[in-house]
Amino acid sequence: MKISVVLPIILSLAIGSFFAPSAFAQFESGGVDHDGIWFAGEGLKQGDLFSYSMCHIDYKECVEFEMDIWIKGSKQVGSEDKWLAEVVVYDGNKIIKGEMELGKLAPEPTGGSEDLGLYRGAFKSSIVWLSAFATGYEDGGKTPKAFSASSWGKIGNIGGEQVRPTLIEEVTVPAGTFETVRISWKTGGYTSHVWVVDDFPFPIKAATLTHVSEGIPPPEYNFRLLKYEENVQEDPFKDVIETEQIFESLGCQTNFEKSTSIKKPTNNFQYQIHLFYGPEDPVQGCEIQFLIKFISKFDDTEFLNQVQYDFLAVDENGTPIRSIAQEEGRSFLFSPGGQSLIDIIVQEEPGTARYAVLVYGLAPEGIVPSSTSDYLEFEVPIFPGKGSTDPPPAEIPEWIKNNAGWWANGDIDDNSFVQGIQFLIKEGIMKIPPTTQGPSSGGNEIPEWIKNNAGWWANGDIDDNSFVQGIQFLIKEGIMKITS
Q1: Most buried among 27, 79, 120, 378, using CB within 10 Å?
Q2: How do beta strands 339-345 and 287-295 pair?
């Protein structure tokens, strides 16, 4: 091709790059062809009922929960007239009810029920986040904002990116299909979006990302409008019973610390897991919370990122009998930053429950991890609930561990040790899983490895479960007979 032909083509491409209205140029300039203004809380009124599915990174690293809000009426707080909202939160197996106060010119939550504190914070930092830019009154840069404006303000992250109306878009959420204006901003090279509707008080959808300097950013908050009703005059939550009321009727402990600690490597030493749980004595039918920390096997201070995992209840063979991920309708649980809070209702029978943290690997959501899975299995004593006829599981007393040590050292004979174990099982002090008794071998000759186990158990080198498995072997082989 001749140079004289190439040059006009290059010039036409260059001119096109300066004057063609690219999508990027439209995004950077901001503003859409839509008359009108918007601010957070616009049109909010008594009788409005909203239901949102939402999450925020500050609460369980963006684990989803549902928040229902009914604008009950007005409330005078000092010199300020506020909205009083009744709120119900559905968080996994928990139901929390309470009140929340919202400003009328900027619907940011202030006072309200103490139990709603975490959720109130998530609501403020997500659904009403745009009130930091668009309010119903003049407050510095906070004013009602025009959809045609090139910018609504700057975010506080490094670089001060503009928050802009960028697109008119039809969006479908469970509450219906809406013509929305998409509000967008960049953080760390990635774009976040919130979709708002003219004359509607809160956004109907959001998909936002945290600011990171490298790697794939985790979500900061997401939400969707599930339901919206107007002119609801009767309390829609009057028949909703809080989980705490149910717990109290069962005699459950409702105020507790996660004080019991377990820190171990996973089975194949791929990861370290440090978990805390509470209450110390969990009760069947009541709540138990686990704080799980996923830690590098090379560095105790380094948290793992983008952990795909599950929390399981398993049987004596390690076979899963309950999956928390499945109960939440998910393929796996996900921890972007290496710490997770698991809050479950104890379904396991009184006695010793076996739980496991199964780590599938490290990968972003939606991507299958390349590494092989690994797990940590551990035991938790479970106590019977209020009204149960079962006796509470007693801890194995220290003296039986002393006996085990003496027996391992030859200070007491086999028959004396077997009689002691029989007594503990019959009295319910030592819990043995269902075990078929084998025929008697005619003697009480116990394998040497059982004695080794007893010695290790007495010294704390193996856990109760490993020792119990040895006792099961004695029963199966007919060496130890448990009479009715």
Answers
A1: 120
A2: antiparallel
Q: Is the pLDDT of residue 422 over 80?
A: no
Domain contains 286: yes
Co-location of 152 and 193 in the same domain: yes
Q: Which two tokens stand for residue 104?
A: 């009328």
Chain segment 313-371, per-residue pLDDT in tens: 999 899 999 999 888 778 899 988 899 889 899 999 999 999 999 999 999 887 899 88
Say which CATH number the domain at 68 has: 2.40.360
Backbone angles phi, psi at 327, to 5 degrees: -65, -25
- Any domain includes 7: no
**H or E segment to which residue 449 belongs:** helix 448-459
Domain tally, the chain: 3
Strands 145-146, 109-112: pairing is unpaired
**Containing H/E element for 455?**
helix 448-459
The 10 Å CB-count burial string (b at 16+, else e) for 104-134 is ebbbbbeebeebbebbbebbbbbbbbbbbbb
414-426 vs 464-476: helix crossing angle, rounded to 10: 110
The pTM assigned to this predicted structure is: 0.65
Residues 249-305: tens digit of each pLDDT: 778 888 889 999 999 999 999 999 999 999 998 998 899 999 999 999 999 889 998
24, part of any domain = no
Residue at a domain's end among 382, 406, 439: 382
Residue 246 lies in a domain: no
Same domain, 48 and 97: yes
Distance of alpha carbon 194 from alpha carbon 192, whole angstroms:
7
Q: Which domain, by its residues, includes 428? A: 398-476
- Tell me: do 200 and 302 sit in the same domain: no
Q: How many angstroms separate the first and last alpha carbons of the chain? A: 100
